[in-house]
Design brief:
This protein has helices at about 60, 100-110; strands at about 10, 20-25, 30-35, 45, 55, 65-70, 80-85, 85-90, 90, 115, 120-125, 130-135, 135-140, 145-150, 160. The protein is built from two helices and 15 strands. The strands form five sheets. A five-stranded antiparallel β-sheet has the order 4-3-2-1-5, with no helix packed on it. A three-stranded antiparallel β-sheet has the order 7-6-15. A three-stranded antiparallel β-sheet has the order 10-11-12, covered by helices on one side. It is elongated and about 55 Å long. Helix content is about 10%, strand content about 35%. By secondary structure, the protein is mainly β.
C-alpha cells in the first residue's frame, strides 16, 4: 500500500483524531515517514507495518465541535469555548465566541490584547513575542448550525481542556 504526502492515516487499532498521522513520504529503504496530526516528532514506520494503516476518509475528518471549558496556565478562571478533539503538540486548540473571547482578553490584562473590528480579529501581545491576530472563523455544529468563533491561542498557547467537560 502506498500513501501520498499529506494524507491523513490511522493505524487499525487507532481512531481519528487520536493516533492520526500525516504522511511525509518514504525514505530510501521504503519506510513510511509520518508525523502526528497536530505536531510532533517524525515517525519511521517499517514496510512490514504499512498494511496496518489506512487513509482517513474525508467525512470522518470533518470536525465536530462540542462546547467545553478550557484553562490557561497563569489564569485562575476557566473559559467556555468549542473543541473538535484536535490538539497541537498535545495541547487543546479552543475556539471562543465573541463574549468569551472578550472575557479572556480582559483576564489576560490591559496590555495583553484587544479586539480589532476592522479585521474582525482579536490581537494579542504576549510578553516578548510578536503580536498575533486571531481572525474570526465559522464552525459547524452537530445540530447543523454554525457559530462565529475566534481561535485565540489555538496552535500556539498551552491550553488544557478541563476534565469532565
Amino acid at each position: 500500500m502506498s500513501f501520498q504526502k499529506n494524507e491523513i492515516i490511522v493505524r487499525d487499532d487507532g481512531k481519528y483524531p487520536d493516533g492520526a498521522l500525516v504522511v511525509d513520504g518514504y525514505d530510501a529503504s521504503g519506510a513510511l515517514l509520518a508525523h502526528p496530526l497536530g505536531g510532533g516528532f517524525q515517525l519511521i514506520i517499517p514496510p512490514s507495518d504499512h498494511s496496518r494503516f489506512a487513509v482517513v476518509p474525508e467525512e470522518e475528518r470533518t470536525p465536530i465541535f462540542t462546547r467545553t471549558k478550557f484553562s490557561f496556565e497563569g489564569l485562575e478562571e476557566s473559559f467556555t469555548g468549542w473543541a473538535d478533539g484536535k490538539n497541537w503538540n498535545g495541547w487543546a486548540m479552543p475556539r471562543f465566541e465573541f463574549a468569551d473571547a472578550q472575557r479572556l482578553i480582559a483576564a489576560l490584562g490591559q496590555d495583553a490584547g484587544k479586539y480589532d473590528p476592522g479585521d474582525d480579529a482579536f490581537i494579542t501581545m504576549m510578553e516578548a513575542s510578536e503580536p498575533e491576530n486571531w481572525c474570526a472563523e465559522i464552525i459547524h455544529l452537530p445540530d447543523g448550525g454554525t457559530v462565529k468563533v475566534y481561535p485565540i491561542g489555538a496552535g500556539s498557547w498551552i491550553w488544557e481542556q478541563e476534565d469532565g467537560s
